[in-house]
Write a structure and sequence with these properties.
Number of strands: 5
Structural class: alpha/beta
Strand order of the largest sheet: 3-2-1-4-5
Strand content: 15-25%
Length: about 210
């Protein structure tokens, strides 16, 4: 059984929006949760092998100068493969981070076995009153801890892990008799919003 409180929460900063267009990862940050506690973190800059444009420099605060001496994707992804071994994965807007993880792993002939869950999709279902579902908005909305740094990988991964644990506690209130598993979360994430309460009721009577 895959408990949702034993996961690696990750975040990429990248040269652009799509690895299909040749964009590459420039930073990865990740937080390892075991029994709902942060037990380890991972953060590395990655030299993408090309210059980063000024928009990305300003958006992330990661300059070409910082990347010049950073390790290669091969080195970082090799370390990261060990870090996530045996864990399922969570990201905010997971389809984005999964694309880049898949692309960087493919470049380096690496594999991972964990499945992904998305705190953004989950938020749209279980926090329907939030003004929007951007990470920064949800951190304020739920009054979660943060250090005021956004768009750096470890800071965003850490905030996402606080959001994730908060989401698990919201689900636990709705489903007090159940262990919250990744299967339950992926089921909820795939349901139309209008069916969420019915799902809770069905589960409660099981």
């Amino acid at each position: 059984m895959t408990l949702a409180n034993q996961v690696v929460v990750l975040d990429f900063e990248t040269t652009g929006l799509s690895p299909d267009n040749g964009d590459r990862a420039i930073e990865i940050g990740a937080v390892k949760l075991v029994d709902g506690q942060i037990v380890d973190t991972f953060q590395e800059l990655i030299n993408p092998g090309k210059r980063v444009n000024s928009f990305i420099e300003q958006y992330t605060g990661i300059s070409n100068n910082m990347l010049k001496n950073a390790p290669t994707s091969k080195v970082v992804m090799g370390q990261f493969a060990k870090f996530i071994d045996g864990f399922n994965l969570v990201a905010h807007n997971a389809s984005f981070d999964k694309k880049f993880l898949d692309a960087e792993f493919k470049h380096n002939k690496l594999h991972y076995t964990g499945q992904f869950a998305c705190s953004l999709l989950l938020s749209r279902r279980i926090s329907q009153d939030a003004p929007n579902h951007q990470l920064g908005t949800l951190v304020n909305y739920h009054q979660l801890p943060n250090d005021g740094v956004f768009h750096r990988a470890l800071a965003d991964a850490t905030m996402t892990s606080h959001l994730w644990l908060h989401q698990l506690s919201l689900l636990q209130q709705q489903l007090p008799k159940h262990l919250i598993t990744l299967d339950i979360i992926n089921k909820i994430s795939s349901l139309p919003k209008a069916q969420i309460n019915r799902y809770y009721q069905t589960m409660t009577h099981q």
